[in-house]
Design brief:
Blueprint: E1 3-7, H1 20-26, E2 32-39, E3 42-50, E4 55-62, H2 69-86, E5 91-97, H3 102-111, E6 115-117, E7 120-126, H4 127-130, E8 143-147, H5 153-164, H6 174-179, E9 181-187, E10 190-200, E11 203-210, H7 217-231, E12 241-247, H8 249-258, E13 265-275
Parallel strand pairs: 4-5, 11-12
Antiparallel strand pairs: 1-2, 2-3, 3-4, 5-13, 6-13, 7-12, 7-13, 8-9, 9-10, 10-11
Helix pairs in contact: 7-8
Length: 276
């Protein structure tokens, strides 16, 4: 067993392992926390997790000379499950890139009976690649886009109802919708899609979910317009990296319509979810 601790100050975890800038970048988002694992007083791993929504492991790093990496992964998971219970969270989600350690993680996650959700495709892009990209989506005058902070009580109630019914993906909670930069597509008086923009280290992450109209050009336009605003924001460096999550096969088609001239890296990002 490793000594895994929840880090609450800004000095204990990054020494000799991750830089102060990276550490602060990870924790720049509210409700983001850091676990550090020690082996005989030496930092051998860090785990960043986000408790804004369902509790999610955002990133994990293990030093090359860690004596037993899978034991450390198990210790991190056990600590996370304990934190979930303390936060009264119902779901723990782990997002992993298909890279070194992926197969080892699968072995550990199988032991914890995590369910595998392979429906999410993440596309990675550079903000600079989006500048001056023409808008190709068609406009439907019967639809309209609103920022959610301008939504009325009835619309917010409709969003909550659909979230509870599971019609949007699980981590679009009411609290997160109201906190993050977000917009909604209103079609025939009902919520048809929701889009969120969140900070990630070194860039932004755009996530969206549709409800009824899975081939809605207006939903594509909503994403396109939001991305355009981000790409032309002077405060965002042109070499910043962004990610856009496409949920399900139908939305992947929408994504191709959204970025017809932009060469993007299509990376499968696998989500493991456990019901607490």
């Amino acid at each position: 067993m490793f000594d895994v601790r929840l880090i609450t100050d800004d000095t204990a975890a990054y020494k000799g392992y991750i830089s102060r800038d990276i550490y602060k970048g990870f924790l720049s988002t509210a409700n983001r926390y850091l676990l550090a694992a020690y082996d005989e007083g030496r930092t051998v791993g860090v785990c960043v997790f986000d408790a804004s929504t369902v509790t999610r492991i955002v990133d994990i790093g293990i030093t090359a000379d860690c004596r037993d990496r899978n034991v450390l992964r198990r210790d991190f998971l056990l600590s996370m499950l304990g934190i979930c219970e303390n936060l009264h969270a119902q779901v723990l989600t782990i997002s992993l890139y298909d890279e070194d350690g992926f197969e080892e993680w699968e072995q550990v996650l199988d032991e914890f009976r995590f369910g595998l959700d392979e429906t999410t495709m993440f596309y990675r892009f550079k903000i600079s690649d989006l500048r001056d990209l023409p808008i190709s989506a068609k406009q439907d005058k019967s639809d309209r886009i609103i920022m959610l902070e301008q939504a009325n009580a009835k619309q917010i109630e409709e969003i909550d109802k659909r979230l509870k019914e599971g019609e949007m993906f699980a981590d679009l909670t009411h609290e997160r919708i109201r906190r993050d930069l977000s917009s909604a597509l209103i079609k025939n008086g009902k919520i048809d899609g929701v889009l969120l923009v969140s900070d990630i280290p070194g860039g932004i992450c755009v996530e969206y979910a549709y409800v009824d109209s899975k081939e809605s050009f207006m939903l594509v336009s909503m994403i396109r317009r939001t991305i355009d605003a981000i790409a032309h924001d002077a405060s965002i460096p042109s070499d910043a990296v962004g990610e856009l999550a496409c949920i399900g096969g139908s939305s992947n088609k929408l994504f191709l319509k959204l970025f017809p001239e932009c060469e993007l890296l299509g990376e499968q990002r696998t989500y493991y979810t456990a019901i607490i």
